[in-house]
Amino acid sequence: MRFIGAGARPGRPQIDHDRVFTIPNALTVLRFMGVPLFVWLVLAQKEYGTAVVVLVVMAGTDWIDGYVARRFDQASKLGRVMDPLADRLALIAVAVTLVIAGVVHWLYLAALLVPDAVLLVLTLSYFHGHPDLPVSRVGKVRTGLLLLGTPLLVLSRLDTPFAGPLYIAAWIVLGLGLAGHWIAAYNYFWAILRKGRQQSHHDGGTN
């Protein structure tokens, strides 16, 4: 089974419908709800084991909602905006929580935020809103690696014989995810510039 683009039907292009109440959108909302639950478990309860379960569920919904959307023709314009937003919110909120909890250094958070901040400024300057760009393959792999490495890192905080190996494995995966994050940001940077310039040229030509 494919992990990227799973559920896609060969020969049938994906159509983004105007629907709001779909299973993929409900799963995306569930992912949003998992963020404050994770924060509470880590900062207030110090329940790292349960927090890992929440992260796994959140990562699972990220894959499942994409599969359902493609397999059962439930892709929507709202989902196209909400899904990457939920991913970004989850990654940043989890990183902030882990910095506060002393699990990761603030430089990890900075490595996540700097590319996103640059893209946000560029997006707002050109589009004043969402640029409506397709999620790249690098971006999908990046998200998967970061969603995998984070629970491994949290698990390494538990008092087990595997804490050391888990910590090393977590940072290998997170390191690859951060590299993918910057590569994806670089690609999105130029994609936003191209689309923004084309839109500006089109708007100028129609006036």
How would you describe the overall organization of this protein?
The protein contains six helices and no strands. The protein starts with 22 loop residues before the first helix and ends with a helix. It is globular and about 60 Å long. With 207 residues, the chain is mostly helical. The mean pLDDT is 87. Helices cover 75% and strands 0% of the residues. α3 (77-100) runs antiparallel to α4, α4 packs parallel to α6 and α5 (137-155) runs antiparallel to α6. The relative contact order is 0.12. The protein has helices spanning 23-45, 48-71, 77-100, 106-127, 137-155, 163-206. The longest helix is centred in the C-terminal third of the chain and has 44 residues, at 163-206.
Could you tell me the strand content as a percent range?
A: under 5%
- Give me the strand/helix succession: HHHHHH
Let me know the number of strands.
0
Tell me which oligomeric state these chains represent: single chain
Largest sheet: none
What are the low-pLDDT stretches, counting only 5+ consecutive residues below 50? none
Q: Structural class of the helix and strand makeup?
A: mainly alpha
